[in-house]
Design a protein that fits this description.
Largest sheet: 7 strands, mixed
Order of helices and strands: HEHEHEEEEEEEHEEHHEEHHEH
Structural class: alpha/beta
CATH class of the largest domain: Alpha Beta
Number of domains: 2
Strand content: 5-15%
Number of strands: 14
Strand order of the largest sheet: 1-9-8-7-4-2-3
Shape: globular
C-alpha cells in the first residue's frame, strides 16, 4: 500500500545537507550584509565561527583553524599543494573523493614517491600497509561509499610524516582523535547544514612547522598560500580570510554552531547521527531487498548511509539497467515530495544514499522507510508487467 504520512523534511541530500530542525530565514536576520568582511563586525563574526567550531569539536588549544575558499575541496587541495613533497606520500582511497586526491597527487603535483592504496566501494584498504615515515592523505568518512575508519589505532603516535584528513562528512558527527590528525578539513554544508562554498582547515603544530620550514617545488597560487617568508600567515586563522566570504553564509554557520551548543555540543551531535544510523539498521534488518554497501558494521558511516539492492531480480539486470532502476526509485520519491537527492553517487554502485547527519530527524527517517519499500515495489512490479 502507498503510505499516507510523509517526512516533515524530505531533504536527505549528502551535501548541501538538511538545515537544522526549526530553521527559517529569520536565523539570518543578524547577518552583516553590505558590510566589508574586513570591518570590525565582519572580522568578529568570522572569528566567532572559528572559535565556536574549535569549542564544539574539542580541538586542542595549540591547533589553528581557518576559513578558506572552495569548500572542503579547496581546503584539502590547499593542504596537499602546500605541504606535500617533503616526504614520500601514501594516499588511501575507498571512494570517489579519496581517489580524486590520489589522482591529483599523481597527475597534478606529479609526486615521484607516491603510493595509492585503493579499496572497492563498501570496504577499506589494508591500513597496515601505511608507512608513517611518510605523509598520509585519507578521508575519515567516505561520503560516496558510506565507509568510515573504525578508529585511529592504525595511526602512529610517533609518526614522522603528517596525517592529512579530509573529514568533511565526519566533522561534527564523529569524535575525531585530534592527537592523531595533523591536518583536518571540512565544509559548512555537511553535518551542521550550512551553505556551500566555504571550507575549514585545521593545522596541528607539526603541520604549522612543515608550512614554515618547507617550500614546495611548484608555484603556489595566492589562494593556497598559508605562510610567507618562513612565517605562518596567522591572520587566516583569526578570520582574515584569503578572499571575500559570504557574510550571509557566515551567519548561517553561526546559527548551526549555536544550535549544536544547545544540543550539548559534539556529544549531542554524535548521538543524533548514531541514532539515525541505528534507525536505518533496524529497517535494513527487516528488508528483503536493501542492504548496507558497507557490510562490516564497524566501518559503517552514520552520516552518508549507502545502501545496495540485493533482490535477485535487480542483481540479474545488466549494470545499465540496475542504474536506471535505482534512479527510478529516487525519482518516484522526489515526485511524491517524500525524499530529495537520495540516489547513489554517480561513481558508486547503483543504490540509495541517505544522509543521517545531526540535522536529520530520526522521526523523518522512520516515515521514509515505508516509502522506500513502496517505491521499490512500484519499480519492480512495473518492470515485471512490461516484461
Amino acid at each position: 500500500m502507498k503510505p499516507t504520512e510523509k517526512p516533515k523534511n524530505p531533504c536527505f541530500s549528502s551535501g548541501p545537507c538538511a538545515k537544522r530542525p526549526g530553521w527559517s530565514l529569520d536565523a539570518l536576520k543578524g547577518a552583516a550584509l553590505g558590510r566589508s568582511h574586513r570591518a570590525k563586525i565582519g572580522k568578529t563574526k568570522l572569528a566567532d565561527v572559528i572559535e565556536k567550531s574549535k569549542q564544539v569539536l574539542g580541538m586542542p588549544a595549540d591547533y589553528v583553524l581557518g576559513i578558506v575558499p572552495a569548500s572542503d575541496t579547496g581546503a584539502i587541495e590547499m593542504a596537499m599543494w602546500s605541504l606535500l613533497g617533503a616526504r614520500g606520500v601514501d594516499v588511501l582511497a575507498w571512494e570517489s573523493f579519496g581517489s580524486g586526491w590520489g589522482a591529483d597527487c599523481k597527475n597534478q603535483l606529479k609526486l615521484a614517491d607516491l603510493n595509492i592504496y585503493k579499496a572497492d566501494y563498501g570496504k577499506l584498504p589494508d591500513l597496515s600497509k601505511v608507512d608513517w615515515n611518510r605523509d598520509v592523505v585519507f578521508t575519515w568518512n567516505g561520503t560516496t561509499s558510506g565507509v568510515r575508519v573504525a578508529n585511529a589505532d592504525w595511526i602512529a603516535k610517533d609518526r614522522k610524516g603528517l596525517s592529512i584528513c579530509d573529514a568533511t562528512s565526519a566533522a561534527f558527527a564523529m569524535d575525531l582523535p585530534w592527537d592523531k590528525l595533523d591536518v583536518v578539513t571540512w565544509s559548512w554544508q555537511k553535518v551542521l547544514g550550512g551553505e556551500a562554498a566555504h571550507g575549514m582547515i585545521a593545522l596541528s603544530p607539526r603541520a604549522v612547522e612543515r608550512l614554515t620550514t618547507y617550500t614546495p617545488a611548484w608555484p603556489l597560487p595566492k589562494i593556497f598560500q598559508m605562510s610567507k617568508g618562513g612565517k605562518l600567515i596567522d591572520g587566516i586563522f583569526k578570520g582574515e580570510t584569503i578572499n571575500t566570504p559570504s557574510m550571509l553564509c557566515v551567519e548561517d554557520a553561526l546559527d548551526g554552531l549555536e544550535w549544536s551548543a544547545k544540543l550539548g555540543g559534539l556529544k549531542g551531535l554524535v548521538a543524533r547521527s548514531e541514532g539515525n544510523l541505528k534507525a536505518v539498521e533496524q529497517w535494513v534488518s527487516k528488508s528483503d531487498w536493501a542492504a548496507f554497501l558497507a557490510e562490516d558494521a564497524k566501518i559503517r558511516s552514520c552520516t552518508s548511509i549507502c545502501l545496495k539492492i540485493t533482490d535477485s531480480w535487480f542483481t540479474g539486470l545488466a549494470p545499465e539497467a540496475q542504474a536506471e532502476a535505482a534512479k527510478k526509485i529516487a525519482s518516484l520519491l522526489e515526485k511524491e515530495g517524500v525524499a530529495f537527492d537520495i540516489g547513489a553517487y554517480r561513481d558508486a554502485p547503483p543504490g540509495i544514499r541517505i544522509w543521517g547527519g545531526a540535522t536529520v530527524e530520526t522521526s523523518d527517517l522512520n516515515l521514509l522507510f515505508p516509502w522506500l519499500d513502496w517505491a521499490w515495489n512500484e519499480v519492480k512490479n512495473t518492470a515485471a508487467k512490461a516484461a
